[in-house]
Amino acid sequence: MTLQPKSPLNGYSETFDGTELAEATGLGLVSIATPRDGAEALNAALQSAYGCGRPDAGTSTASGDGSMRLLGLQQDQIFALFPHSGDRAVTEIATALGEVGYYTDQSDSWAFLRLSGPAAIPALQRICTLDLDVTALPVGSVARTAMEHMGVILLREGTDAFLLMGARSSAGNFLHAVEQSVRNVT
Fold it and tell me: Which residue from 65, 169, 182, 41 is spatially nearest to 122, judged by alpha carbons?
């Protein structure tokens, strides 16, 4: 018997009156921590490898070819989010950037949900405290928040489109909270 990888939410996908909620799979997520006095070297490596600089906290930047997004989570830490399957996401980042940062693979630690459509904002407003107005949280913004007592990272991908990242260990509860909120507003 050969073991096969399984996504945290088994490929969940539902549409609720024009609003889609679906598990996002095939993503690599790597934490990049900046060494002491290493911000300039890291930024130069990011520019050289991906054509974009290190984002400030609360923002994100896309690589020149659009295949990767760097998420500014806090001073001296970013996440690299990119299409990837397998268990070598850190190797890909470390090969591209060299020894200018400290890298930790976070890919298997998170469950990813994409929520988009007309009920996305009303559904999220019921379960998180962020101001989701596009002027307060523009497209490309990233924020940490809590949803139903669970820590979540929210990336705004469009006016009414979001990538939500919750801990894999509570993936079922995370999905249930978001799904119920969408059901309650559609």
Answer: 182
As a whole number of angstroms, the distance between CA 125 and CA 47 comes to 36
Other CB atoms within a 10 A radius of the CB of residue 167 amount to: 15
The residues near 56 (Cβ < 8 Å, ≥ 6 apart) are 72
How many residues in total does the chain contain?
Answer: 186
Residue with tokens 């990049």: 32
Give yes or no for a contact between 41 and 100, defined as CB atoms under 8 angstroms apart: yes
**The tokens of 19 are what?**
């609003």
Spatial CB neighbours of 8, under 8 Å, sequence gap ≥ 6: 23, 111, 168, 171
Q: Which amino acid is at 165?
A: M
Q: What is the pTM of this model?
A: 0.94
pLDDT digits (tens, 9 = 90+) for 79-108: 999 998 777 899 999 999 999 999 999 999
CA distances from 179 to 22, 119, 184 (A): 10, 11, 9
- Helix, strand counts (H, E) of the chain: 4, 11
Which domains occur in the chain, in start order? 13-25+109-185 (3.30.1360.120), 27-107 (3.30.70.1520)
